């Protein structure tokens, strides 16, 4: 990485993706600060770094100015991963996505604006900003983007804020739209859900929706590599804003994920019971039934995922079966 980058702030750094990014940067001898309120993350993910001089943990909320100012004091780059990631929560508590995803991003940007020095912000966005895209694989310039969940809407709103602050104030913004990221330390998702259900009853597996939902899955190691690859490239350029889709080159159905989990558990195939779902077989309100990001722009930079969707799912299942 260019020498200009030495001190990183990772919001949500005790969570799934954030803690893996911490591991990578710490092993490469960078100064790292984590700001996390531990609502989704855990200090267990960071325990190997807590006593290192090059690491600082700030327990706090992005919506508290004092916490943000303390965490951003030494940082020259910010990896903004903090968010409430549960898409289905928007159906019953939409304020959560507004407060934890959109308002928190605004508060972070305000703190950086007041700091008054050049800052680079890497933002963890999502495929859900595209909604039910009619073009698959979906490129970064697809539009209009019409999110169908409050989660997707909050992320799209945060993207807009980042763009506005980049062009109005002394900031640069790298926006990364992730497919479904899976792997160790994840706390939710279809793989974990299926394993838990099969532990309770190996003869029957209830599956939300009609089972034909088809999406891309990205293994966590590939995700972290893509973050740092695009970030390094961004630092060398002069763009105010750049956007990349980050995912795999294929898709896998929910039913196939169930079969992979059953195979890895080494039990006879159960009776699959599909709930039928909502709105034409979705798992829940706001669930994008068919998601496939075009990663052609990212591939052209020389990055390529090491795992396809099925491999990412299988490796994740193997990991969780060792601890469940």
Structural class: alpha/beta
Measured distance between first and last alpha carbons: 37 Å
Q: What is the subunit arrangement here?
A: single chain
Shape: globular
Q: Specify the CATH architecture of the largest domain.
A: 3-Layer(aba) Sandwich
Layout of helices and strands:
Blueprint: E1 7-11, H1 16-27, E2 31-36, E3 55-59, H2 65-72, E4 77-80, H3 94-115, E5 119-126, H4 150-168, E6 171-178, E7 180-182, H5 190-200, E8 204-207, E9 214-215, E10 217-219, H6 220-236, E11 241-246, E12 252-253, H7 254-265, E13 271-274, H8 296-299, H9 309-321
Helix pairs in contact: 1-6, 2-3, 3-4, 5-7, 7-9
Provide structural commentary:
There is one protein chain. With 324 residues, the chain is α/β, with parallel strands linked by helices. The protein folds into 2 domains: 7-182 and 218-246, NAD(P)-binding Rossmann-like Domain (Rossmann fold, 3-Layer(aba) Sandwich); 190-215 and 250-287 and 307-321, Alpha-Beta Complex (UDP-galactose 4-epimerase, domain 1), CATH 3.90.25. Helix content is 36%, strand content 19%. It has 9 helices and 13 strands. The protein has helices at 16-27, 65-72, 94-115, 150-168, 190-200, 220-236, 254-265, 296-299, 309-321, and strands at 7-11, 31-36, 55-59, 77-80, 119-126, 171-178, 180-182, 204-207, 214-215, 217-219, 241-246, 252-253, 271-274. A 7-stranded parallel sheet has the order 3-2-1-4-5-6-11, with helices on both faces. The radius of gyration is 19 Å and the shape is globular.
């Amino acid at each position: 990485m260019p020498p200009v980058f030495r001190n990183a702030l990772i919001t949500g750094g005790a969570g799934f993706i954030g803690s893996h990014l911490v591991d990578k940067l710490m092993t490469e001898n960078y100064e790292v600060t984590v700001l996390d309120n531990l609502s989704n993350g855990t200090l267990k993910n960071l325990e190997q770094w807590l006593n290192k001089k090059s690491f600082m943990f700030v327990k706090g909320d992005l919506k508290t100015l004092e916490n943000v100012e303390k965490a951003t004091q030494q940082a020259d780059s910010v990896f903004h991963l903090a968010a409430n990631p549960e898409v289905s929560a928007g159906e019953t508590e939409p304020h959560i996505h507004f407060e934890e995803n959109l308002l928190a991003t605004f508060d972070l940007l305000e703190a950086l604006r007041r700091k008054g020095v050049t800052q680079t912000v890497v933002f963890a966005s999502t495929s859900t900003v595209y909604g039910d895209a009619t073009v698959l694989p979906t490129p970064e310039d697809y539009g209009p983007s019409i999110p169908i969940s409050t989660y997707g809407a909050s992320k799209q709103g945060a993207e807009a804020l980042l763009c506005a602050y980049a062009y109005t104030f002394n900031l640069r913004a790298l926006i990364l739209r992730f497919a479904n990221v899976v792997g160790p330390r994840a706390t939710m998702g279809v793989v974990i859900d299926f394993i838990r259900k099969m532990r309770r009853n190996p003869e029957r597996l209830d599956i939300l929706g009609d089972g034909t939902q088809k999406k891309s899955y990205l293994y966590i190691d590939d995700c972290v590599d893509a973050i740092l690859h695009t970030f390094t490239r961004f630092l060398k350029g002069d763009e105010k804003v750049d956007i990349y889709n980050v995912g795999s080159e294929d898709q896998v159905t929910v039913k196939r994920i169930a079969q992979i989990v059953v195979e890895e558990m080494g039990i006879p195939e159960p009776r699959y019971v599909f709930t039928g779902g909502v709105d034409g077989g979705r798992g829940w309100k706001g669930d994008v039934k068919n998601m496939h990001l075009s990663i052609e722009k990212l591939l052209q930079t020389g990055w390529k995922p090491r795992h396809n969707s099925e491999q990412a799912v299988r490796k994740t299942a193997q990991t969780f079966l060792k601890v469940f």
